[in-house]
Amino acid sequence: MPEAPIFVVQLHDARRLHYDVRLEVDGVLKSWAVPRGPSLDPSVKRLAVPTSDHSIEYAEYEGVLAESKYGSGAVIVWDAGVYQNLTKDKQRRLIDPAEAIERGHFKFRLQGVKLNGAWAFTRTDRDGDWLMVKVRDAAADPTLDLTTAEPQSILSGLSIEEMAATGSDA
Questions:
Q1: Among 29, 63, 103, 137, which is disulfide-ready with 54 (CB 3.0 to 4.6 Å)?
Q2: Measured between alpha carbons, how far is 64 from 57 in angstroms, rounded to an integer?
Q3: Each residue's pLDDT tens digit in the chain (170 positions)?
Q4: Phi, psi of 152 (to 5 degrees)
Q5: For residue 131, with 0-12 CB atoms within 10 Å meaning exposed, 13-18 middle and 19 or more buried, which class applies?
Q6: Gap between the Cα atoms of 12 and 38, Å rounded
């Protein structure tokens, strides 16, 4: 039985503070920058801007990227785990994640340290941004903002500010 694909959410203090939501697809981490982070409230739609693919190894990166590098600034692993693809076609057959992303709608269930339950990424137009929305399920909680309640790294325990103060490329 194949291993479940991984996901990681990295909090990144680059030009602006944002959460990079990364899902393993075809051997790389497909990535979206989500400025306000994932919400547990199904009525909240979060802007998700596609970014470049990253290597699987990057899923464990924490540190401070040098000024000369793209996306310089502090990075922490805010959450990580595995995910399950839930995207289906009209005949209710599972669609491959890469195809789902190409079509503009990708639904998945996260099993992480902080995030659990189902979400969906939906492209708003052919060339543009996406939205990240929590699916109504048992893990939905409109009263809890995990980005505020649990700001620290699941690996180091550091906040983004503490990581920035270390100045180290971990």
A1: 29
A2: 16
A3: 468 999 999 999 988 899 999 999 999 999 999 999 999 999 999 999 999 999 999 999 999 987 655 668 899 999 999 999 999 999 999 999 999 999 999 999 999 999 999 999 999 986 689 999 999 999 999 999 999 999 999 999 999 999 999 876 65
A4: -85, 165
A5: middle
A6: 14
Q: Which residues sit opposite 94 in a β-bridge?
A: 88
> The tokens 């400025």 sit on which residue?
35
Residue whose C-alpha is closest to residue 51's, from 82, 16, 83, 84: 16
Report, in this order, helix, strand and coil percent for the chain, each rounded to 5: 15, 45, 45
Tokens of 53: 């693919």
Indicate the residue type of 96: D
C-alpha 69: how far from chain center? 21
